[in-house]
Amino acid sequence: MDLKLAHSNKDGIEIVDVEGEIDVYTAPRLRELLIELVNKKNYQLVVNMEKVEFLDSTGLGVLVGGLKRVRAHDGSLDLVCTQERILKIFRITGLTKVFGIHESVDQAIAARKAEK
Amino acid sequence: MATVEVTFTPLPVHVRTARLVATAVARRSGVAESLLDEVRLAVGEACSRAVEAHQRYCPGQPIRVELTDDGEQFEVVVTDAVPDAEHGTPGTAGKGANGAALPAGPDGFGDDPGLADGEIPLRLPDGVGLAVIAGLADDVHVTAAGSGTSVTMSWKRRTA
After folding, report:
1. ipTM
2. Which one of A15, A40, B26, B130 has the fewest beta carbons within 10 angstroms of its own beta carbon?
3. Could you tell me if A37 and A73 are in contact, meaning their C-beta atoms sit under 8 angstroms apart?
């Protein structure tokens, strides 16, 4: 399945909905979207990965780069993911300690607001 | 002789094809359903690594994937035409299979200078992909193959 991207603002936080496969072929599109959002001064991001069917280290690289970029503006990039097969690659690479990973968009927003 | 051999031009879009073929052959070979996601991800990582290296050094040469089932284990060999020492992202070129580390630096991003300028890289250091493969396959070897590199991954046959 190809990659579908959408984004919307909720409570001042930009929600990025990702659907499909994030790999070496499709990751550049996610990268472009994250760059576009940051360039438009959206520094609080939540990437909803509940409909992601495949994620490899290329996709991880884009997410890590996005996190680095928003952190440069004191921002955040949290993830929503409950799928074990997707979470596995975060565990293998140790990135569960780098990203805030939540079970729902509402939970991610609530966690972010609680930190403010 | 491999059960199935696939040769593809080094384009990102073909990595997906290689993943699909590997998963299909693994399933047909009797690899447990619970392992198919691991085969798919590991083969994708190895092919992505090869594609990236070929695009920098030898875009005209193909990448070969061999899938073999000997009854006891399912083995995948991804062979490229780039020496191991040349593998790596631009910021980590030359680190090869053993040089790049997982993103465990001060902020969890490792020491990749490509991540230090606020830009968004396309890939993490080359070693991350290999670390992912090592975390998924029962056994992994990176060896020289002619003028290039082979990544051999295997999974022991076991029922789900």
Report:
1. 0.88
2. A40
3. no
Cβ atoms of B31 and B155 within 8 Å: the answer is yes
CATH number of A4-115: 3.30.750.24
Q: Find the length of chain B.
A: 160
Yes or no, beta carbons of B128 and A21 under 8 Å apart = no
Paired with B154 in beta bridges are: B75, B139
**Cα B95 to Cα B76: distance, rounded to the nearest angstrom:** 24
Q: Which residues of A touch B40 (CB under 8 A)?
A: 54
Best residue of A16, A33, A53, A64 to probe chain B, by most B CBs closer than 10 Å: A64
Kindly report, residue by residue over A51-71, the tens digit of the pLDDT: 999 999 999 999 999 999 999
**pTM, rounded to two decimals:** 0.85
- Smallest Cβ distance to B41: which of A24, A34, A56? A56
Tell me how close the Cα of A10 comes to any Cα of chain B, in angstroms. Answer: 24
* CA of residue B39 relative to chain centroid, distance: 11
Whether the pLDDT of residue B68 is over 50: the answer is: yes
- List the single residue in A57, A68, A95 with the smallest CB-CB distance to B118: A68
H/E run at residue A108: helix A105-115
pLDDT, tens only, B115-139: 444 566 666 776 788 999 999 999 9
- The answer, for B139 touching chain A at a CB cutoff of 8 Å, is no
Q: Tens digit of pLDDT for each residue in B74-118? A: 999 999 999 877 776 444 433 333 333 444 443 445 544 444 445
Give the mean pLDDT of chain B: 81
The superfamily in CATH containing domain B4-156 is: Histidine kinase-like ATPase, C-terminal domain (3.30.565.10)
